[in-house]
Amino acid sequence: MSETEESTAAWGQEFTGVLDVGGETTIGLSYSSIVEDNGVVGAGDGGDWRFQVSEFAKGAAEMSMEFGKGLRDVLKQSFFTEDSFIMRKFKDPCEKLCDRLKFLNEYLPEDREPVHSWTVISSVWVFALLVLLVNTSKTMAPMVKRMKLHPASASLIQLPDGRQLAYLERGVSSNQARHTIIVPHSFLSSRLAGIPGLKNSLLEEYGIRLVSYDLPGFGESDPHPKRNLESSAIDMLHLSNAVNVTGKFWVSGFSSGSMHAWAALRFIPDKLEGAIMFAPMVNPYEPKLMKKERRAIWEKWTVKRKMMYFLARKFPKSLGFFYRRSFLSGIHGRMDKWLHFSPGTKDKLLMENPVFEEFWQRDVEESIRQGNAKPFVEEAALQVSEWGFSIGDIKMKQKHRERGFISWLKSIYSPEEEKVSGFLGPIYIWQGAEDTVISPSTCDFVHRVLPDVMLHKLPHDGHFSYLYLCDACHQQIFATVFGDPEGKLETTDIEEEEDSEAADADLLLVSEGKASSSA
Known about the structure:
By secondary structure, the chain is of the alpha/beta class. It has 18 helices and 12 strands. The strands form 3 sheets. The protein has an 8-stranded mixed β-sheet. A two-stranded antiparallel sheet has the order 1-2. Strands 9-10 form a two-stranded antiparallel sheet. Helix 6 (about 230-240) crosses helix 7 (about 260-265) and helix 8 (about 290-300) runs antiparallel to helix 16. The longest helix is centred in the first third of the chain and has 33 residues, at about 45-80. The protein starts with a helix and ends with a helix. Mean pLDDT is about 85; it is low at about 1-5, about 5-10, about 15-45 and about 500-519.
């Protein structure tokens, strides 16, 4: 007990030594209050608080130095003593390495300490290496290319419901055209695509008039509030009438654009002369697909493409979230990333072509010029929703059965007559064997349900390589469909056609007059 009292008394004497009688501190720093003229304690002119801040900074710096020295001592005692793990493990190898590198000290100045010099040299090397890595990563990063909004350039027609439809016309004029081809574009495309890279000289050589148009909500066309595939076919019919297509016309579709070509074949077959398709798509949920056909179609797609089809069928509104972060972001990107496919060999070579890249980027810029995700969501949903028809319904064969006992006897000894309805014209299809967007099994299904289709399989081509920027391919396509080139209709040919039509009309009037007189 007495020991405790003695220690307490000693501590009290040390503490009272810190303070003087007046209560002012005597630990080496004296803080004097500043008294204003009226005798009230104030802050002064500001010199006192600056002094306090500077002293606080000095004290913090001294404490940091002491903390660093303490941390250094702890590290030395813990890791760099003779019996520590690091010293036992690495001391001998480091000494051997230093002995071997001692000859490098000969290249140092005589007044320099080797340890200090090599530490500085090593630090500079590390810093220089980091700078090079940072600069290299910056140069390897792809340049960001922003999309441009181009001036309006399309020709416009007004549809009966008040909407405007934008189109582009190429080739010969309407009164000189032997054939007219109307082209609905594919997803993330526009009227500018048409048949990509097709030369006007080839169109004139065959006397072809090519009319491509923007789907509702794409490019410069107004959106359709309740569009479906039947309304798409009706839009095509109104377009043909507006651009003075007097007879029948051909329809051409590439990839998902063929969905609208199928619709035209189903809903306006009497206005069509034929169809030309490249890698045409069918509904992946088509009921008439056999299990092996459906499996072959789905297995070539990437996981993300399968997911996008699932969302388009079940949760279509969620697609807008992905579109705004890809092609609607205002920044150009890679085609295979936006369309979610893994390109084949020929498609990769084509995508690396600067001409193709420029063409495709301009087409995308025109496609998204309205900046609205809704038309793209509607287009994606149409691809996987109920089309309102099956591919096999385009050309249907029905057996003509007569009622009665005599008809039953006839059916026993003679086969029943088949009546074909729907579109009866030619359908040409070109399909690449290395296509990873539209599986070749799709065309096998089309050929199974439409046996009269003329299918051309391309063993070494992908999805884009045959159609895009290939002059020889375009020449081959037109030669297959239209035969030998006959050129555009001349004035004499037009007059002969008009004379023949007038003669037919006169003959019809004469026959009607004779019939009425005999009556």
